[in-house]
Amino acid sequence: MVQGATNWNTELTQEWLQNYVDDWVSFYRKHTVDGNVASYIPILQEANRDHLGISIVGKNGMTIRSGDFEVPFTIQSISKVFSFIVACMGRGLSYVLDRVDVEPTGEAFNSIMHLEMTQLKKPFNPMINAGAITVTSMLEGRTSDEKLEPVFQLLERMLDYRPHLNVDAYESERDSSMRNRAIGYYLLETGYLESDLNITLETYFKQCSIEVTLEDLARIGMIIANDGEDPNNKEEIIPRQVARLAKALMLTCGMYDASGKFAAYVGVPAKSGVSGGIIALSPPRVRDEELPFVTGCGIGVYGPALDDKGNSIAGIRLLRHIANQWDLSLF
Ligand code: GLU
C-alpha cells in the first residue's frame, strides 16, 4: 500500500528514499493494465506493457533506480527537446523563434488541423510534430547524419557515452509514418521547411529512434534542471537562456494535450514520448523544511502502456505521487 504524507525532515538517506520509491513503483505497476502500448509505429507494439521503471539523479549525485530501469527504449518525442536545444545553439534563439512559436495548442501532437486553421502562422511550438519537424529542418548539415551529429554530440557530452540509433525503430517509423509525411508536405507548401523534405523527415525519424535508458534521461534532466550546467565539473553544456526556454516549453507543451493538467497536478517540466518514456526535472527549490532532492534532480520514467493522450499511464501516476510526496512542484 502507498504511504500517506510523510515527514521528510528525518534522514534523507539514499536507502530510505529507495525503499519508498520501490514501494511506489510496485503499487503503480498495477495501473499499467489501464493503458495500451502504441501501435501506429509497428515496432512499438513489441514493448512489454507491464514494464514500469524510474531513475532519479540528484545534483549531489544521489541516484535512485527502481523497477524496470534497465530496459532500453527509443526516445521518440523526447528528442524534440534535444533538437530544439541544438537548433538554438547552432542558429541562435531568435532565428529559431522566428520560425516556430512557443504557444501550447491543446491539440494532439500530430494534429494538422491547427496548421490549416492558422495558415499564416508559424507552427505553434517545438514539442508538437509540426514544430519539431520545422526545428529539425533548421539543423545544419546536408545529410540526416550530418544534421544529427550535433544532437549526438550534445547527448554524449551529458552522458559520457554516445547513445546509438535503433535502426529497426527508425525503419519501422520511416515505413509507416504517413501522417508525419503529410505534415511535412504541408510545411513545405507553407514555406516553413529550411531543408529538403525527405532529408528532414529522415532526420526526424532518426532522432526519434535514438535509444536510451532511464538513467540517461535522469542525468540529462538533472543538467537541464541546473540551467544547462553539469554540476560535476561546472561545465556549461547548454546556454542558460536555452535551457530555461526548454524548461518553459516542457512545462507548457511537453505532455501532449494533457500538459495543462500535468502542470497543475504534478508541476514540473517534463516531456513524454509514445514509447512510454518521460523525462522530468525538478529545479532547485527553496523551502523551510528539508526535502528530498531539494537542490534539484532529473527523473526518467518508463512505462510503455499509454493513456488516451499518449502519455505513460502508470508513469504519470507514479510521477504525480512522487512530486506530491516530495513537494517537487514549482508552484
Ligand atoms: N516518432 C513519433 C512520431 O512522430 C513520436 C511521437 C511521440 O513520441 O509523441 O509520431
Explain this structure to me?
With 331 residues, the protein is of the alpha+beta class. It is built from 13 helices and 9 strands. Strands 2-1-9-8-7 form a 5-stranded antiparallel sheet. Strand 5 and strand 6 form a beta hairpin. The radius of gyration is 19 Å and the shape is globular. The model has no long low-confidence stretch (mean pLDDT 93). The structure holds glutamic acid. The site of glutamic acid has 12 residues, from loops. Glutamic acid (GLU) binds next to loops.
Run of helices and strands: HEEEHHHHHHHHEHEEHHEEEH
Main sheet summary: 5 strands, antiparallel
Q: How many strands in all? A: 9
Q: Approximately how much beta-strand content do the residues carry?
A: 5-15%
Keywords:
alpha+beta, 331 residues, globular, binds glutamic acid, two-stranded antiparallel ribbon, 44% helix
Which secondary structure elements does this structure contain, and how are they paired or packed?
Layout lengths: L13 H16 L23 E6 L4 E5 L5 E2 L4 H13 L1 H7 L13 H5 L11 H10 L5 H16 L7 H8 L3 H13 L6 H12 L2 E2 L1 H12 L3 E2 L4 E2 L3 H14 L5 H7 L4 E3 L4 E6 L14 E6 L10 H14 L5
In short:
The protein is built from 13 helices and nine strands.
